[in-house]
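Now for my pick.
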Amino acid sequence: MKRKLNLILCFALLITIFLPLSSVSAYTGGYANGKNVVAMISDKYFIDRPHASKKNTTLITDNNEETSYLLPKGNMIMIDLGTNRTIDSYKLKSDSKNLRIIFYDQDTG
């Protein structure tokens, strides 16, 4: 009896180790939820002027943690929230540890 119980527990442990939980948790209802994101070269000249470096995507704000967007080195993303907002928290998933997040309001220029 004890041997069967140990076998069942070992089998259950193996199942939980090798079958990852596929549930994905993403925050919905945020200010950037579903917004179009502009990825571009991080140069002030290109922020207000059309340039070939600009790429639009919603993969970053689609609330699906299984989708991703590869941001080339030296590029930045810009999300226009439409109006001034008070940001007291944010959620970001990234493989890079060398990130900088900056919030601007419309008066920053």
Notes: The CA atoms of residues 45 and 51 lie 9 Å apart.
